[in-house]
Amino acid sequence: MSSYYIINLLIYAAVDATACLGLNQQFGVAGVTNFGFIIFQAAGGYTAAILALPSQSANGGFQTYIGGWNLPFPVPWIGAAVVGGVIALPFTFLVGRRLRGDFAAVGLLVTAVLLNLLVTNYRPLLNGSAGLSLIPQPLQGEYNPQSSGYQWTLTAVAIVVCALVYLFVRRITESPYGRSLRAMRDNDAVADSLGKNLLSLRTAMLVTGGAIAGLSGGILVSYITTWSPAAWGYAETVVLFAAVIIGGAGNHLGAILGAVLVPVGFEEVTRYIPTSNNLPPNLIPSLEWVAIGLLIVIFLWVRPQGILPERKRVIRAGAAASPPSAAAPSPPAPPAPVSAVPVSAGPVSALSPAVEPPVDREVVLEAVDVSREFGGVRAVDGVSFRVRHGTLTGLIGPNGAGKSTLLAMLAGTLPVSGGKIYYQGRDVTHLPAYRRARLGLVRTFQLASEFKRLTVMENLLTAVPDNRGDSFRGALAGRRYWRGDEAAAIARAEALLERFGLDGYANSYAGDLSGGQRRLVEIMRALMAEPRVLLLDEPMAGVHPNLARQIGNQLVALCAEGLTVLMVEHELAIMDEFCDPVVVMAEGAVLAEGTMAELRSRSEVVEAYLVG
Amino acid sequence: MTIFLASVGFGLVTASVLAVAAVGFTLQFGVTDVLNLAYGAVMIAGAYIAYVINQAGLNIWVGLVVAVVACSAGSVLLNSGIYTPFQRRGASPITMVIVSLGMTLIIEFGTQAIAGGTSVSYTMAQGPSVRAGGLVLTTVQLVVIGLSVLVMLGTHVLLRYTRLGKAMRATAANKTLARNCGIRTSRVINLTWAITGALCGLAGVIFAMDAGSFDATSTDLFLILILAATFIGGPGQAYGAMLGAVVIGLATEISAAYITPSYKYVVAFVALLLILGVRPTGLLGARA
């Protein structure tokens, strides 16, 4: 075994591992399925090439390309990373809120196929299908690239770069920002409703992953000194996906393992297959592709979490208590951990809800003539009503009355077809859901919507606004920068878990809880978002009556502390006991409003809903 | 003018092939909710099956029938053996797309492993050329167009006037509700895969006839045309796919007459990205 062979192996392993880390950050951590990943590696390869190559004439003139700036190392590598990141920007329109993830993935796949076709056919740009060759190696003027010392150094540098990329992606993933990314992966609509800007998160991931892919391409061409369209067919992306899935999506060490097993492993195993003149020339490569396809399908079936599954982030009780003062300056923890709502929320303290009748209180949320159509069906037809501060307002009505649709429009999950929505006197009709959430207008969902692969504690922490670590920059600044905020958030979450009796489950995966417990997690998570107005969509559905009563009591207590709640519910007993006032909807319109006692006396309401 | 008319002729043939393929693809997605990227691979496998029959000395139209039957059966197996088990386990749409991409590699390169990497063509007579209003088409091209029109009419009759078609539409709209209404959705889904698989096989063979020569990777780019036609019409919409096929077929071939032919797919690509970015439910789909 020659040292050339080992060097070759190590460099390919380092490059593939680097690329897989970038892909894992996008796909495994943030759930951005980038089927065009190879484009970014290709862009990095070409960038490094045209930055390092001398001008065409000086290079013999047998290949045509743009650039040819003959720039010294490390400019080509830096350029590769920068271009890999920048060309990600045009793709962001595919991964915004609107487009289904699988459709966006198809768009990216198609882009990869087409760009390869274009570069292959258009020679003036990057020498067409022949590609670029004789690409100068780093510092080849000063050292002899053929010497084994040079080769070993290049190998070592590639491995160091891979290690640095690993530390970089780990820093992002293990921060509060990384938690938001994982929450978006598990359920993007819910992350949106909790104030996460999906477009910005996905853009950051496309750019980050693109830059890492570009860097890996730059390193690769520095070693192999050639780069052509054949090296980056769309199917190469599939190989990297196979590596990440097999190694363990969401686990960065798994991504490295996958890179060593799949792309490197295949390259090596096929080397030992005896070549025979009797075999058709394409047979072995074809079978390699078949094997990669089989590996993907089999792994997704047998072990979808991969060889090294994403590990559980355990947060121990009381961990919050130890370091808060040592941390960097951080806003003080909420004074009363009993309350999930900061006392500063709104002009609460001046009003005493106990004495003032609900009808006279300040209007915090108002719908004016709001309507919504689904393909000609008017699900909500000109609804106007007000929610007053500190009330627990109930919203009832038969199935199909438009309650959930109305709630979705109030929260911004669905755009209105007509009408206006005012929140704290401000017109929020066209504000996206995440912006409304940041203003304190937070919703829960009718269907279970926990982040399945986050623990209960993480589910709660995700919702916390203003965590310094919950931004790309904050994540990069490191744990010391955000651990104060984190500790305060953990303390609040622990208090809340205790209040709702789920403290024993803090480190269980939310996806493993019972239905009723998941509803609780959802309510607690919404409370962690520091809402002023909380929109609950059937929070007690499927919950044991005793627990439902407990939730109701908690909500009443929270309202007394200044929270406002609008709650869709079917259980009349709950309405009787906790809600005042109650709004009745039927066939997309508001039928009546008042206390339950008043409503029971009105015949049209009884006919529409209360009977039976 | 002659160039234009000639390209319209090519466009009609491409649109015909594309319509058959896209209607199958879109029904597959609409009824069974699988964005089956392996569709192109199954097409080319069908084209090779017809080739084998053709090489054995039989008429290519016999090969076509065999390919249609084989792709139909193969698609039912693909669904019941792979996709349905994954769906039953609650796999996300993204996982399904990745699985279908894995199946693409298996089928496409499995075909290549058996058939070799060289291009092949059918042995068949093109028949006398026919002139009609400035268009010049071979008999084979006319037959391709005719077959496609028949398939479109058949699809229309199936969806509008048969119990199965109504059951398919009901399943597409709401699978659970359809099942609760007494529709045997698993049977409907199997039949859908049988029908769309047959369309896929037919599309594969007429694609190969139209292309002249083909190899195992020939449908990689054609799949982009299928996706473009499907998304322009709105995914799941059979009539939309027909419209999309005509638009994309004509647009690619007419543009090929004026720009370098190797760039003709760019038109389809730009159309696809625009529709994904601006109106992902397609021109005929409901507003998002």
Summarize the structure.
Chain A has 612 residues and is an alpha/beta fold.
Sequence-ordered SSE layout with sheet pairings:
The complex is a heterodimer of chains A (612) and B (288).
Chain A: H1 3-29, H2 37-52, H3 75-86, H4 101-121, H5 123-126, H6 148-173, H7 176-186, H8 188-193, H9 198-224, H10 234-247, H11 252-271, H12 283-302, E1 363-374, E2 377-388, E3 392-396, H13 403-411, E4 418-423, E5 426-427, H14 433-439, E6 441-443, H15 456-462, H16 472-477, H17 479-499, H18 515-528, E7 533-537, H19 545-560, E8 564-568, H20 572-578, E9 582-586, E10 589-594, H21 596-600, H22 603-610
Parallel strand pairs in A: 3-8, 3-9, 6-7, 7-8
Antiparallel strand pairs in A: 1-2, 1-4, 4-5, 9-10
Helix pairs in contact in A: 1-6, 1-9, 1-10, 1-11, 2-3, 2-9, 3-9, 7-15, 10-11, 10-12, 15-18
Chain B: H1 2-32, H2 39-55, H3 60-88, H4 93-115, E1 120-121, E2 129-132, E3 135-138, H5 139-161, H6 163-173, H7 175-180, H8 185-211, E4 213-214, H9 219-233, H10 238-258, H11 264-278
Antiparallel strand pairs in B: 1-4, 2-3
